[in-house]
Design goal:
14% strand, 10 helices, 44% helix, single chain, alpha+beta
Length: 336
């Protein structure tokens, strides 16, 4: 084996170029590299920056929360996308069936119209993402915009008696929409845009009570960060002695709540402005669509603050003794 081939094998790459060592062939690996590269395309920042400011400045009022998906507990954009994609896919089937042209045009038009609210919801979500997700999302939106344009053109030319051109534009639009969907999947799952960043907490904290420090260590009305194993906690002591303990990573994009403002019974994330009630972790403002997990608290006879996850949170898992949960251990202050 030559030196170059040995290097490729040591890096997990088949010398033939057919596999990258992770079950991906060379074309698939190249595609994944291209998708990953979108997040590093800093030249897109010249467009993303001003556009983000413009979307954030829109006077949407209470409709912003609806477009973000707060009432349903997750982003609204994936829900709305089902209508145009379904309509366009159905139109493609009808285009292959003799006599289906008229109904296909109807579905093409339905897809174009329904893509508008889907795009609005996507843009509102997009404007609250970090830089890498902003860049990838911009390309995702551009792909979908091209698809909408192709379908709009298809609808127009069909009405002018050019069904063949209309079909060609529609099939091209479906292909571009497929590319946009792939980029959107990369954005949602590979880059975790829109996912609940606090969901794994019940897999990381063992059942039972865990000490987080002496009650005297916590200043009234201020958020303090503590670590319980791998889980960061926000501890807030009320003036009357009650304690509130939430997961410190914001459910939106894992922002540090302990660095945010604590006021009026809520804590505000310093990154994107999501606000959560201290009593129950409910998200009441900002782009977060999921609440913060809240721990039960108690003080021992020696004045040690202990916490545990409520049974309601535990019920989401397969039962007690969750695989991978950390054992009880002394807390550590961030930076130790």
């Amino acid at each position: 084996m030559g030196f170059l081939s040995a290097k490729r094998v040591s890096a997990g790459v088949d010398p033939s170029g057919r596999d990258d060592g992770a079950g991906r062939g060379a074309p698939a690996a190249a595609l994944l590299d291209a998708l990953d590269a979108l997040g590093g395309a800093k030249q897109l920042d010249r467009i993303a920056g001003p556009l983000r400011k413009a979307i954030r400045a829109l006077p949407l009022g209470p409709y912003r929360a609806v477009l973000q998906g707060r009432p349903i507990g997750h982003p609204l954009h994936p829900v709305l996308v089902q209508v145009p994609i379904g309509a366009w896919t159905s139109a493609a089937v009808l285009d292959l069936v003799p006599g289906g042209g008229r109904n296909a045009r109807l579905l093409v038009g339905l897809g174009v119209v329904s893509a508008v609210p889907a795009a609005w919801a996507g843009w509102v979500d997009w404007a609250e993402q970090p830089d890498r997700q902003l860049r990838t999302g911009l390309v995702h939106a551009a792909s979908n915009g091209v698809a909408i344009g192709l379908y709009a053109g298809s609808w127009v030319v069909r009405g002018r008696g050019k069904p063949v051109v209309g079909r060609l534009l529609a099939f091209a639009g479906l292909g571009v929409a497929g590319v946009g969907g792939m980029i959107g999947g990369h954005l949602a799952f590979r880059q975790a845009a829109g996912s609940n960043k606090t969901e794994p907490v019940d897999h990381l904290v063992a059942p039972g009570w865990h000490p987080v420090g002496s009650a005297s260590e916590f200043t009234e009305g201020q958020g303090v960060r503590r670590m319980l194993g791998e889980v960061p906690l926000l501890v807030v002591r009320e003036p009357h002695g009650e304690f509130h303990v939430l997961v410190d990573r914001c459910s939106h994009m894992a922002g540090p709540l302990s660095q945010g403002k604590v006021a009026d019974g809520c804590v505000e994330c310093p990154w994107h402005g999501s606000a959560f009630r201290l009593t129950d972790g409910q998200n009441i403002a900002g782009p977060a669509t999921a609440p913060q997990p809240v721990f039960e608290t108690r003080l021992t006879e020696t004045g040690t603050l202990e916490v545990r996850l409520p049974d309601a949170v535990r019920a989401r898992t397969s039962g007690p003794g969750t695989p991978g949960a950390v054992a009880s251990m002394p807390p550590r202050i961030e930076g130790d």
